[in-house]
């Protein structure tokens, strides 16, 4: 008998999608089928691609988990990661694994990895492009002009909150005090002092930023990186992105290029930032990494040695977004008051998570905050309205 997929791992049940009405269930039952349709609508796919998408839809709704075809990209790794899951319902295996494998299978269905005319065509590119052309990004970039007039501490705060709320895919770094004020109460843990202390303490600092979404999230992330380099908090930055499309809008190298171009094409201060970031890449002050583990269905506690060595050298690693948070602390139903430090003790250096809450996992809350959140009766864990800046020195 395979071990139950949600058997407690170090004390807390692993999240699966078995419970109807749960968040994880709704992602598999509603979101994934809808996504197949959206991708189908966005491209003039061939009959073969439509058939493959039909087969995937059938598999995720009424079927069982099937392995990748022999010889497919990453087949061996997925066979290993999926041991004990093939032949079972998508709903009963770990949520993190099921979601990750869904995205890998979607790429398979549209021929992303196969030699031919559709190789390398990002099925999410139309959505990413539309966002970059949209008014929210234009407003975010225009708001940069006001930033220069703020006192240095306020600039630090605005750039950091921009990167944080960019994960909600709105707000960005619009810095009018009203908006920052309005969201301040929803920041339920704020360890940001750790970030400034850590980065202010060394003249040769490397900061790693493990990116999440492209567009209105990656743009403020890049602006944060520029700010850290510009203010001397960091002398070297390493941006970790995905080696291939993942979780709809996760940033790939192509997205970094598109976002840099979008920043540099904007008027005013944004253009200067775009130019500086380009120079930083050209001089090696900003490196981009696309490690295969970034798309693995595993917690960071299981990261390979080369990635570990990379993080080990960093003065500080910044983890962006919900998925990275799940992988950082483990995608399990931890009591919300579990210590963030305990959950990240394995990490090879100081780490800070900037995350809006978009799934059930949460640690590091104090009992009072938790009680107040529970008393609201709102879906505060999953609605993206609340956020944390959680660090481990
Ligand atoms: O883009 P983010 O912040 O990583 O959020 C991704 C989140 O979205 C979902 O895929 C679906 O809402 C979550 O399961 C996941 O954690």
End-to-end gap: 42 Å
**What's the β-strand tally?**
7
Q: What's the architecture of the largest domain, going by CATH?
A: 3-Layer(aba) Sandwich
Q: Structural class of the secondary elements?
A: alpha/beta
Give the proportion of residues in helices.
Answer: 40-55%
Low-confidence stretches: 1-5, 170-181
Reading the helices and strands in chain order gives HHHHHHHHEHEHEHHEHEHHEHE
Mean pLDDT: 92
Number of domains: 2
Q: Give me the CATH fold name of the largest domain.
A: Rossmann fold
CATH class of the largest domain: Alpha Beta
Beta-strand proportion = 5-15%
Biggest β-sheet, characterized? 7 strands, mixed
Number of DSSP helices? 16
């Amino acid at each position: 008998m395979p071990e139950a997929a949600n058997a407690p791992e170090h004390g807390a049940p692993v999240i699966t999608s078995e419970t109807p009405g749960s968040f994880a269930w709704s992602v598999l039952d509603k979101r994934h089928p809808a996504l197949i349709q959206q991708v189908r609508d966005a491209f003039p796919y061939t009959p073969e691609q439509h058939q493959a998408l039909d087969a995937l839809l059938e598999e995720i709704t009424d079927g069982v988990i099937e392995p990748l075809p022999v010889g497919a990209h990453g087949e061996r790794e997925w066979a290993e990661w999926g041991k004990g899951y093939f032949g079972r319902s998508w709903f009963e295996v770990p949520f993190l694994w099921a979601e990750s494998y869904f995205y890998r299978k979607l790429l398979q269905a549209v021929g992303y990895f196969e030699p031919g005319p559709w190789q390398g065509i990002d099925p999410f590119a139309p959505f990413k492009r539309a966002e970059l052309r949209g008014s929210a990004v234009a407003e975010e970039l225009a708001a940069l002009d006001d930033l220069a007039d703020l006192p240095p501490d306020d600039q630090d705060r605005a750039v950091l909150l921009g990167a944080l709320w960019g994960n909600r895919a709105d707000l960005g770094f619009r810095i009018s005090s009203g908006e920052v004020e309005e969201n301040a109460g929803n920041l339920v843990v704020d360890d940001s002092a750790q970030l400034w202390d850590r980065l202010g303490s060394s003249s040769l600092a490397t900061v790693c930023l493990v990116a999440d979404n492209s567009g209105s999230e990656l743009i403020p992330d890049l602006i944060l990186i520029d700010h850290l380099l510009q203010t001397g908090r960091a002398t070297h930055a390493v941006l970790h992105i995905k080696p291939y499309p993942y979780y709809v809008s996760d940033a790939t190298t192509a997205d970094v290029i598109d976002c840099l171009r979008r920043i540099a094409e904007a008027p005013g201060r944004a253009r200067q930032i775009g130019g500086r970031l380009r120079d930083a890449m050209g001089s090696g002050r900003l490196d981009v990494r696309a490690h295969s583990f970034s798309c693995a269905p595993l917690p960071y506690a299981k990261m390979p040695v080369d990635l570990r060595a990379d993080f080990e050298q960093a003065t500080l690693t910044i983890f962006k977004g919900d998925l990275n948070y799940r992988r950082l602390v483990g995608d399990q139903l931890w009591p919300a008051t579990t210590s963030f430090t305990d959950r990240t003790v394995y990490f090879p250096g100081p780490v800070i998570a900037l995350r809006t809450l978009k799934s059930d996992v949460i640690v590091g809350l104090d009992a009072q905050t938790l009680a107040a959140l529970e008393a609201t009766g709102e879906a505060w864990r999953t609605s993206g309205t609340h956020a944390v800046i959680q660090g481990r020195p």
